[in-house]
Design a protein that fits this description.
about 120 residues; single chain; seven-stranded mixed β-sheet
């Protein structure tokens, strides 16, 4: 079992920045994809950013150039730096860990990001 805990969500004005953190613990395998997804009320959960164990990144089109995903392997932590935030970024942001070889697809509890004046 893998446990993911997100933090860093907040209420922020448009144009502001936030940094989300996700700490993974438990039975973590070597080959993983970690990422951030978000879900607004009435909407499907959508990809924000992914980071593979090899360091490759992938971003949703709506956040390219504004958000940056990074990780600290020693701390089993992934971050999401969110800049130039827009009201449409308002959502619950979820951390995800998926092992690309063995079974396992895990989610954190989510952290609320609200972008509003």
């Amino acid at each position: 079992q893998v446990y993911l805990v997100e933090s860093g969500g907040d209420f922020v004005q448009p144009g502001g920045s936030l940094r989300l953190s996700c700490v993974a613990s438990g039975r973590i395998l070597s080959t993983n994809v970690m990422g951030w997804y978000r879900q607004a009320p009435g909407k499907q959960r959508e990809l924000v950013a992914q980071l593979t164990s090899g360091g490759r990144t992938n971003y949703g089109d709506s956040v390219k150039g504004r958000f940056t995903i990074s990780g600290d392997n020693a701390k089993n932590t992934v971050y999401l730096q969110m800049n130039s935030l827009k009201p449409e970024d308002t959502a619950v942001y979820y951390c995800n860990l998926r092992n690309t070889i063995g079974p396992g697809d895990y989610w954190g509890q989510g952290t609320q990001v609200t972008v509003s004046s």
